[in-house]
Specification:
Radius of gyration: 16 Å
CATH architecture of the largest domain: Sandwich
Shape: globular
Strand content: 25-35%
Number of helices: 4
Number of strands: 9
Helix content: 10-25%
CATH superfamily of the largest domain: Jelly Rolls
CATH class of the largest domain: Mainly Beta
Order of helices and strands: HHHHEEEEEEEEE
Largest sheet: 6 strands, antiparallel
Number of domains: 2
Strand order of the largest sheet: 1-2-3-9-4-7
CATH topology of the largest domain: Jelly Rolls
Length: 205
């Protein structure tokens, strides 16, 4: 994975402004914040180093690590890219020969406009796997975002979604899929009248 996120995004401003589109649940944000703090320190990075690499503010990084603010999918993706890890790696201790993940143990991140379930395994290094439930009008965020060094696969499991890639829209119905490079500006939205579910796979190059 690339050492930093793409510069196509504006830097994070005041807390609650750019983050208002998609929010993590309060319980999960504390876990994520502490995991990010530990990963940052393990890489010998200061909060300012991480903020610069991710294109976010030092204030945002500081408050998020302490569990005092929320993060969008956009911001989490950029932070993980800057740390050289997948999102799922934040929940893992290390690889095991055989790993069974029970439904009740799946990490769930409740977002505004989406619910994300993380299936990433240490047995598949460099690969993030998760499902996203989208109510009608729900999306990955108000704005498209980008990050370097990965390829992405989206499978529409149910419903009707639009995948925006570099301002071009691709429509997916149940069992349709799309693959694209992560450095393109991308965004997903449920444009149907019923709930939609997608499987999202992100792989390091």
């Amino acid at each position: 994975m690339a050492a930093g996120a793409s510069g196509h995004h504006p830097s994070e401003g005041a807390i609650g402004a750019a983050e208002a589109d998609v929010l993590t649940a309060a319980g999960t944000q504390a876990v994520l914040g502490e995991a990010i703090r530990q990963r940052r320190r393990a890489r010998g990075m200061r909060q300012g180093d991480l903020a610069e690499a991710a294109g976010l503010s030092v204030s945002f990084i500081s408050q998020f690590e302490r569990g005092r603010t929320d993060a969008s999918i956009n911001s989490l993706t950029r932070i993980c890219a800057a740390l050289g890890i997948t999102l799922g790696a934040l929940f893992q201790d290390g690889p095991r020969a055989v790993e069974v993940l029970k439904a009740e143990d799946v990490k769930v991140i409740d977002l505004e406009g989406a619910t994300k379930r993380v299936y990433t395994s240490a047995e598949l290094p460099g690969v993030d796997v998760y499902t996203v439930d989208l109510p009608p009008g729900g999306s990955s965020g108000a704005k498209a975002y980008t990050h370097d060094g990965q390829r992405e696969l989206i499978i529409c499991r149910s419903g009707f979604v639009a995948v925006e890639i570099d301002e071009r829209q691709y429509l997916l119905r149940a069992r349709d899929s799309i693959v694209f490079p992560s450095e393109t500006m991308h965004r997903v939205e449920n444009i149907g009248t019923a709930d939609a579910e997608i499987t999202w796979v992100v792989r390091d190059l």
